[in-house]
Amino acid sequence: MTTENNHQTFYGLGIAPAILETLERMKFKTPTPIQHKAIPIANEGKDMLGIAQTGTGKTLAFGIPMVQRLAQHLTAKAVVLVPTRELAVQVDETLRKVCQPYNIRTAILIGGMNMGTQIQTVRKSVTRIYIATPGRFMDHIQQKTVSLQDIKMVVLDEADRMLDMGFAPQIERIMRNMPKDRQTLLFSATMPEAILKIATVYMKLPIRIEMARSGTAAEKIIQEIFIVRQESKRQLLIKLLQQYQGSVLVFARTKMGAAKITRALRDMHFTAAEIHSDRSLGQRREALEGFKLGRYRVLIATDIASRGIDVKGIELVVNYDLPEDSENYIHRIGRTGRAGHEGRAISLATPDQGSNVRDIEKLMRTTLTISTHPDIPGESFSRFTGNAGNARPRPAAGFRRRFRSTARHIR
Which of 47, 83, 298, 395 falls between 20 and 30 A from 375, CA-CA? Predict the structure, then answer.
């Protein structure tokens, strides 16, 4: 948990004693800002629109009020919709701990798992919280294996990401079929127009809480850009892995690219695993668990994992390829510097991507620093891209004493 607001504790937020004891066992003593503001509002049964960066503790912000409401109404149920399988598993892990004092059962309904097994799980146990991806939840609704009649709370977690992934039709169908007297909580890192539409149509006078401006990243993340030719990226990545000794998350744009990077790193004797949609659910779980436990030092992922990885202590995020959508840059680098800790994000841009970097800077309302590595030829952005073609880089951290800094920012 963050060390901000040290005078604040979970006491006084209207949290039941049994959950307070659970939080103590989990060694959570200080609520994050989003938790401190969201829990009392959600406890009152009000609809809420929460804007907060990734890694700020949103699961407990909605999980604690959810479990308390279900404990008070023994037939009530709840649904948490998430964009990815990985995020569903992580939300379930956290909610199970909070649910334990009340013996409330959860169920994960996601693609990649056997539908028949999911149906048996839902039917055999009295499931009261469904953690689901929108597509698979619609499958269960259509097959009438889940009933929406007793749903009293709906949470849309990482709502902007779900819309980015094309889940808007499923979300709208699900929300149209929900009971009118439900409570709806929506959490998002950014606030596009589509989110406001959902809030207007499907929420009742939602209270908006915003912990950071839409498009901002965690304050303690050091960000750098290296401008290099495409053929130099792999060599630069190797140099970065030699410079930084901790766990590293590498983002590639395509599944094929992620696989190639993984093979190249393994050939260089780095322990590496890949995670993308061509990998089975079992393979993705093994890769993520291995990364958490340190079996793999490097995890190579596509954007499917930009919000599905909740791993403490990631030292470095490398954007091997810049994301197609500038908002995904924020979600990617949010995998480091979580819960108030320091982190570092390095992006590798080619000379023709000046406009892409400009879009990221515009969204984040900041200027990214251009760096160079002494062993890799540095480039400049092409003038025709609309960015500063004469922007010169500076040596990366760790090399500045040996090489004169020529730091300039993109303008």
Answer: 298
**Cβ atoms 2, 339 nearer than 8 A:** yes
Our count of domains for the chain comes to 2
Task: Give the residue-averaged pLDDT of 38-59.
Answer: 89
Residues 161, 87 within the same domain: yes
Tell me if 404 is assigned to some domain.
no
**In a shared domain, residues 127 and 187:** yes
Size (the chain), residues: 411
Q: What is d(CA 382, CA 387) in angstroms, rounded to the nearest whole number?
A: 7
Q: Categorize the per-residue pLDDT at 340 as very low, low, confident or very high, splitting at 50, 70 and 90.
A: low
CATH number at residue 283: 3.40.50.300
Q: What tokens does 344 get?
A: 């570092």
- Model confidence over 114-132: pLDDT tens digits? 888 888 888 877 899 999 9
Which among 244, 220, 250 has a CA at the least distance from the CA of 3? 220
**Residue 313 in tokens:** 């202590």
7 part of a folded domain? no
Number of other CB atoms surrounding residue 22 within 10 Å: 19
Does the residue 288 lie in any domain? yes
Half-sphere exposure of 276 (CA within 13 A, CB side): 21
Q: How far apart are CA 396 and CA 393, in angstroms?
A: 9
- Do 307 and 367 belong together in one domain? yes
Residues 165 and 241 grouped into a single domain: no
**Confidence category of residue 409, pLDDT binned at 50, 70, 90:** very low
User: Is residue 112 domain-shared with residue 162, that is, in the same domain?
Assistant: yes
**Bigger pLDDT: 2 vs 76:** 76
C-alpha distance from residue 270 to each of 45, 241, 306 (Å): 50, 9, 22
Give 291-303 pLDDT, tens digit per residue. 988 899 999 999 8
Domain that holds residue 113: 17-210
Q: How far apart are the C-alpha atoms of 406 and 410, rounded to whole Å?
A: 13
> Are both 325 and 387 inside the same structural domain?
yes
Residue type, 196: L
